[in-house]
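Notes, p. 3: input format for complexes.
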Amino acid sequence: MSAPKSFYVTTPIYYVNDKPHIGHAYTTLACDVLARFKRLDGFDVKFLTGTDEHGQKVEKSAEAAGISPKALADANSANFRELAARLNCSNDDFIRTTEARHRASCTALWNKLVETGAIYLGHYEGWYSVRDEAFWGEDELITNADGAKIAPTGAPVEWVREPSYFFRLSAWGERLLAWYEANPDCVGPASRRNEVMSFVKGGLQDLSVSRTSFSWGIPVPGDEAHVMYVWLDALTNYITAAGYPDTEGEFAARWPADLHMVGKDIVRFHAVYWPAFLMAAGLEPPKRVFAHGWWTNEGQKISKSTGNVIDPLGLIDTYGLDPVRYFLLREVPFGNDGDFSHRSMINRINNDLANEYGNLAQRVLAQIAKNCGGAVPKVGELTAEDREMLDGAHGLVSKLRPLIDRQLFHEVLEALWGQVRAANIYIDRQAPWGLKKTDPERMGTVLWVLAESIRGIALMTQPFMPDSSARLLDLLAVPDEQRSFAFTGSHYSLKAGTPLPAPSGVFPRFVEADVNAG
Ligand code: MSP
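Output follows (518 residues plus 5'-O-[(L-methionyl)-sulphamoyl]adenosine):
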């Protein structure tokens, strides 16, 4: 057997001056679903998340709080680690940019860029936004209602002038364009790819990659009055965690990363600057950068100032973890912006989960318990309709793989629910409850076809709803070691006579009074 293929997926690393909110939970969850899917599909997965701890923004927040930047980072990094755990995320590593391994990696990358002539010392003057940790061109600024110049993101900007090291980004335009052309999938969705390409076609200026006006960062080797630009520091986390500067060993197997998942606001950093840094250092760019959209809250832009930030832990407490995981990836076509509302959350729980999926399982398992002696029934001759049901369930994995590889989570779930609905139609048409007296053998076959279909569906819902799917597979007595996608086919079908545990509901309805009671 050949060694399993590596699949390396990353979340952005989160700024520690903020509390975790729904946006962070969303990116991390999407990566978790991918990581779980790929692991179940036989890949050797590395799933990385972590925190971005340097920069002026953190220094200023710490100052305001009267604590050291490191103390602030320690406290808030722990919140992000806890969020990942509460989301039941299966990350294999959690990186902090204040760790020694990361400092070593950034220092090595910097030295490499100096050695290849990609970094030079100059002078910087320009409009800087602390909130975005980015310089903005004069032509990119907008004027707000008070007549002040602000960044296109709405953040305040200030004029700064200081000595600075520069990365020769202007030299990379043609090579970046050639990379996008040769790798049509390297940036997704297509709208973001177009956006990135037109930005590069518009001409690239050299990028300031060091600062002297504050000190909370990784010192520039040999010139410690400077700290590295926080985005150069932050992006490097992806290679640090793969083992850089050691480019043999794990790095050789892990790099380039298969996917950097990001929000639409940080595509430019990942799809322009990062590949240019890497290529300049003689390293390969990532295979793919995918940008998802942004959530609004009941139709309103989410912002700290309006106080409508959605706390993911609060959502989990109210609705339960798996329903939240399902909702976030089902409600909005991945890549688009979407709106969060309690109404749509409750609808998804009660319709998709309780009525459609949960009820199907409950009906089938209850009938087996009652009419088949609580064991997997015997399967008789199969009709064309039976075969169609089974083929649909057994064929799910090959249908879903190409969708997962394009991060089309909502389409994966639609395809799965197509199978759930087909099973609900089948049970109504076959009406096994009416066969008990007239044709018990046929009743057994119908219930077996249904139970086997549920096995096929539950195997595939594992990445999205790990706990609930595990409970369903327990109710079907599917052995733990037979839950990877290698076992989806008919060869591993449920065996007649296998005793099943007493059925219990897996997807309860959400009773509305609960929202106000909490
Ligand atoms: N530290 C940088 C990333 C460095 S990666 C080398 C950063 N951090 S962040 O904490 O501000 O943002 C993390 C992610 O949250 C981004 O991908 C961003 O798009 C996402 N979101 C922030 N608000 C969001 C919504 N309202 N909706 C969805 N995602 C949002 O950027």
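The domain at 342-512 is CATH 1.10.730.10 (Isoleucyl-tRNA Synthetase; Domain 1).
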